[in-house]
Please model this.
Amino acid sequence: MGFREVPIESIEFNPFAKIGKQWMLVTAGDQEKFNTMTASWGGAGVMWGKNAVTVYIRPQRYTKEFIDAKDTFTLSFYKEEYRKALSFLGSVSGRDRDKVKEAGLTPVPAGDSMAFEEADLILVCRKMYHAPMPPENFDDKSNDEKWYPQKDYHVMYIAEITKVLVKE
Model:
């Protein structure tokens, strides 16, 4: 089973459901070496006249090294039957083990990055901007204590969606 490219306007994409409730995998790297992580924070919209997504990655996440090293990454979305795999991928590091193999997913190239054959939807993204999220910029100061007890503040990435792939 493969994927076909479709116009972004042809997909139904509710970011509150797709990202916040169903989760996604953020994947970066190439066929030789890549990593993925589960995320439930992010957004989708338009930035600088381009269809765009935002993702937020803590500095200690292994996937961040791959995102920083390349221009592109993917966001991929799955049916509920993959919830256990996504939960696993978000709880272990790819630094010390082959967590993709352990999760039972099949890596496939997507644009200049990687994604997984089991996905229903893949967004291929090209970085446009990134910035740390320092606590002095929090308007709601309670977020610092609630979300950052270890002071490991996210880096925000804004990326253009360059390709939309759906399962055939």
